[in-house]
User: What shape does this take?
Amino acid sequence: MKYIVLLGDGMADHPLDACGGRTAIEAARTPNMDRIAALGCSGLFCPVPEGMPPGSDVGNLSVFGYDPRKVFSGRAAIEAANQGIALAEDEVAFRCNLVSLDHGTMKDFTSGHITTEEARLLVESLNEALADRFPIRLYTGVSYRHTGVIKATAAASVDQMVATECEPPHNITGQACAPYLPKGPAAGLLRDLMDASVPVLRDHPVNLKRIEAGKLPATSLWPWGQGRALTLESYRDRFGLSGAVISAVDLVKGIGVCAGLEVINVPGATGWIDTDYEGKVAAGLDALARHDFLYLHVEAPDEAAHQGSVELKVQAIEQFDARIVGPFLEYLNTHPDTRLLATPDHFTLISTKTHAGGPVPFAMCGAGVEQDSSTRYGERDARASDILITDGYLLTHRFIKDNPLPLAALRGE
Ligand SMILES: [Zn+2]
Assistant: This one.
């Protein structure tokens, strides 16, 4: 049997006035996801466990079939895995943004989308300057997004670092930073580190050149999103499957690395509505020839919702349905021993331009999946079914492990 998971990031939403009281999924033309619901079933599940942050890291871990409550401590460890950085047990990974502060306010959490080449030079200088005073090693990522690995010391243990409250810098654009500096057991270390980065960056030739060119300088490191190593049971051990992941997003690829899946990079995958859908489909079909399991992730609906654009979100969902879901539904015609699951990983609300937890709709069909009375895919239709999986990671468990897969199993009966 082949298993295909198609993930439309942040597709789920609340009813919108701009859509005549419908959600973005309900307003979008989605004949293929409707068809999945009609051929099989649809229902609700909670990818984000109660009390956990509704991020793509937590949501996707659930959809991959891992319980985030057991395995997740922070996104930076997942990004580190994707960068090939191995974390020791006494180390914690932090996302370290290069941010642009102006008189103590968060001017730009991207430092004017600084280039990776420029950032690499800044990170080199920071490593040289900070190595003697801090147990940190910085790794250059892409643009403003870098990773810092901090070794535990008497001053800050792994638990203390993980328990420290660090504000994501994209949440405080234009605001005074002082109330959002690290708080908690390792706050002293992290604040010292941020302070120490400032003079290194201030007169750096890269920044002087940027200022001269009218661009924003990178003025400080901003650590956040920390976590200890993400240790996942491999897909082979957990489900007896080999598999592949296709995504433009580091977090999703990082989970794939940790799960022992093949991570396939599609050159035109952008994470935006202009992504190379056909390239992703071709790579996915190719992967299915070698593997039992495929996880194909599309970021665009989430990005559109972050921009607060209903039109773009609806368009992104329609593109996902037509250009990703459609071809895999066709694959089912020629490969009947296959199951297909289409789902988001969390809500991304147009109204707040941000993520939210709560039960989101899924649809699945294929070999051995019992049919319910669903005819369409959407929040309301999923709610009308009586499937609600509160331990969200169990959705994929049942999808993969139960054969046949009766509705009663999805209802937890
Ligand atoms: Zn997401």
